[in-house]
């Protein structure tokens, strides 16, 4: 199958499946909920306000198969493996491309057979690769050093889908530039250079950097809400984590501004990586749509969780993720 079409199909179908699962309560509460949203929002066990999962299991209405599938979970801390994956594969692909390795040649030749007229330039590919590497490296740092220890879990299918997404992303940043890369008969280190400034990069590169900075700021702030110093010395290690309502300016009108920033980052990448004669990179646009669909479902769950824990007024008038839209 054409590599570009396969990647686009993976992103779009995966996003559609996530949205479809969100519409089925029995699937949504078991397969899509993780982290703090996977716990009872009340600070104490309350029979009148149990967690969504406990309701469906206790009334016996849930299919045994769904229960069995959803019971296979991994620690939420395994999120770090997503960013290890993209960071490691970014290094692998730049080596494959630079040496014209067999895996690269196989994918690039298959992609070129169906599209020779519209290609990214080599400097453009390097810029896109560098930005995705920066994104993956930053998220790896945040996951390793900012995240607080937690007993929360996520469904193993969610984890596997995340790994698959970043494997696909590591290829997507260069696959639409295959004709240009194959034209380099003997690649040299000087070929790995940033493109000359254009109106496109002049407008979108600052957007990428600002969104990255905003996301990092939001992640640092959220981590500070659960800082160890905020915990009483007498609190046992097994006690549930203490959550606070975010009051940072980024959270004043948006429930999950760090998700907003993530979406903007992928929009910027799709524009920066647009092949010659195109407005956007089609493959990265599909990746962006998957990202928005996935995070929109999570943002909706976050708003519901805030309402249950802090009251409806805590998020009244706030957009979940996309201002004036959602």
The tally of beta strands, per DSSP, is 2
What gyration radius follows from the Cα positions, in whole Å? 22 Å
> Topology as H/E string?
HHHHEHHHEHHHHH
Average pLDDT across residues? 85
Backbone shape = globular
Number of helices: 12
Biggest sheet statistics:
2 strands, antiparallel
- Percentage of residues in DSSP E strands: under 5%
Strand order of the largest sheet: 1-2
| Percentage of residues in helical conformation | 55-70%
Poorly predicted regions are: 43-61
Compute the separation of the termini in Å.
Answer: 36 Å
Structural class: mainly alpha
Write a structural description.
- With 326 residues, the chain is mostly helical.
- It has helices spanning 3-22, 25-32, 52-58, 64-70, 80-99, 102-114, 122-145, 156-175, 178-182, 199-224, 257-272, 282-310; strands at residues 73-75, 153-155.
- Mean pLDDT is 85; it is low at 43-61.
Task: Describe, in short, the structure shown.
The chain is mainly alpha-helical and 326 residues long. It has twelve helices and two strands. It has a two-stranded antiparallel sheet with strand order 1-2.
State the main characteristics:
mainly alpha; 2 strands; 326 residues; globular
What topology does this entry show?
Elements: H1 3-22, H2 25-32, H3 52-58, H4 64-70, E1 73-75, H5 80-99, H6 102-114, H7 122-145, E2 153-155, H8 156-175, H9 178-182, H10 199-224, H11 257-272, H12 282-310
Antiparallel strand pairs: 1-2
Helix pairs in contact: 1-8, 1-12, 5-7, 5-8, 7-10, 10-11, 11-12
